[in-house]
Write a structure and sequence with these properties.
12 strands, rod-shaped, 4 helices, 383 residues, alpha+beta, 21% helix, single chain, Jelly Rolls, four-stranded mixed sheet
């Protein structure tokens, strides 16, 4: 009995070792399960479970840390508005900003010392020069900040001897595109560009509407002088009805004729600086045909004279129109053709009666003037 007991004891001892090992393994497995469940236990198994659970918690803490860190990194790596960057004007520069410091943190257009020192609008044309950057508040850069007519890009080009287009081209456009400088002067059909000096207005009237003239040379009032109305006169010798004074019988006076203006000095028959009229004097029988008188009702400055022709293309005063002068007489202020009686020295049966006469009016002094004239034609009765 005792032997059997000892043998059994040894055998049990070995079995216990085996059972102990097996139990430890199970315990470890249980510990692992415990760790998986997140519970704690005693002995080695509990220690391993606890360690595994701690590792799992550390992993979770790391993930939470990464999420928070990622959000912070977005802010700290931004060069303009990151943590610690003070940028009041929003130009990306300021105290502690990645792009650099700002010399004036209240001015979006400047951040360097050169910009802060040189950004200005000297000519007050709302176009700036010398700034670090430009926007709608400070447009620029101005290619010439000493000239308020010059600014951004291709500005409106003026006739003034300057290059408004910022390309160095002085008055490059046709005059009609650069002029007039002021307003819309009347009766101008073309312009000239002749600046007297850089920066001075060079617009001059080139040509005017028909029968308008620029006699004072002032561009702003355009062609201010109105010449003779050619609905009541003609510009060359002829029989057009608008040049007819009328039929003048004895005792008739015509003094309501057109008021004319010829701004230019006489430049010869047919050359343009002249007005023409024609008049009929019916022959009522000779002698005693009466006395014809043509003179000026108005002659401002005594600037005008006239000549009388029997026919277009002939010489003035031809065929004894003015016997006191003869052919080629000087221009007249007054012309009289008398046919009152045979005792009158002006009368001669050999002198043809002027049934029709052509009158040419022209200027003899004060060139480029708007002075006026008006003719008067009369025929008196026989005495």
């Amino acid at each position: 009995m005792l032997t059997l007991a000892c043998a059994t004891g040894e055998s049990d001892s070995g079995n216990m070792s085996g059972l102990s090992a097996g139990n430890q393994t199970d315990s470890a497995t249980d510990g692992t399960d415990s760790a998986t469940d997140g519970s704690s236990g005693g002995g080695g198994s509990d220690s391993m479970g606890t360690t595994t659970g701690a590792t799992s918690n550390t992993s979770n803490t790391t993930n939470t840390s990464n999420s928070t860190t990622t959000g912070n990194t977005t802010n700290t790596t931004d060069e303009t508005t990151g943590a610690g960057c003070i940028d009041n004007d929003g130009d990306g520069y300021g105290e502690g900003c990645g792009l650099g410091s700002d010399c004036n943190d209240d001015d979006f257009n400047n951040y360097t010392p050169d910009g802060c020192a040189n950004c200005m609008d000297v000519d007050a044309d709302d176009v700036w020069a010398g700034c670090d950057q430009y926007d709608e508040n400070k447009q620029g850069p101005d290619c010439d900040d000493n000239n308020d007519q010059v600014g951004l890009g291709d500005a409106v080009e003026l006739c003034n001897g300057l290059a408004e287009n910022c390309a160095g081209e002085v008055d490059p456009l046709p005059p009609d595109e650069m002029c007039p400088t002021n307003g819309d002067p009347p009766n101008v059909t073309s312009w000239l560009c002749e600046p007297p000096a850089p920066g001075e207005d060079g617009c001059k009237v080139g040509s005017c509407s028909d029968q308008f003239f620029d006699v004072n040379g002032v561009a702003d009032d355009g062609c201010e002088c109105q010449g003779t109305d050619y609905s009541k006169a003609i510009d060359s010798c002829g029989d057009a009805m608008n040049g007819k004074i009328g039929t003048v019988g004895e005792g008739v006076t015509v003094d309501n004729l057109v008021v004319g203006v010829i701004p230019k000095l006489d430049n010869g028959v047919g050359s343009g600086a002249e007005d023409w009229y024609w008049v009929e004097f019916p022959d009522t029988g000779r002698p005693a045909g009466g006395a014809i008188t043509v003179n000026f009702a108005v002659n401002e400055g005594s600037d005008y004279r006239f000549e009388v022709f029997r026919a277009c293309g002939q010489d003035p005063w031809a065929n004894s129109l003015a016997t006191q002068y003869g052919a080629g007489a000087p221009p007249a202020l007054e012309w009289t053709f008398e046919d009152t009686n045979t005792a009158n020295a002006m009368y001669s049966n050999t002198v043809l009666w002027p049934t029709k006469a052509y009158i040419r009016v022209f200027r003899v002094q004060n060139d480029n003037s708007c002075s006026k004239y008006q003719l008067k034609v009369a025929r008196t009765n026989e005495p």
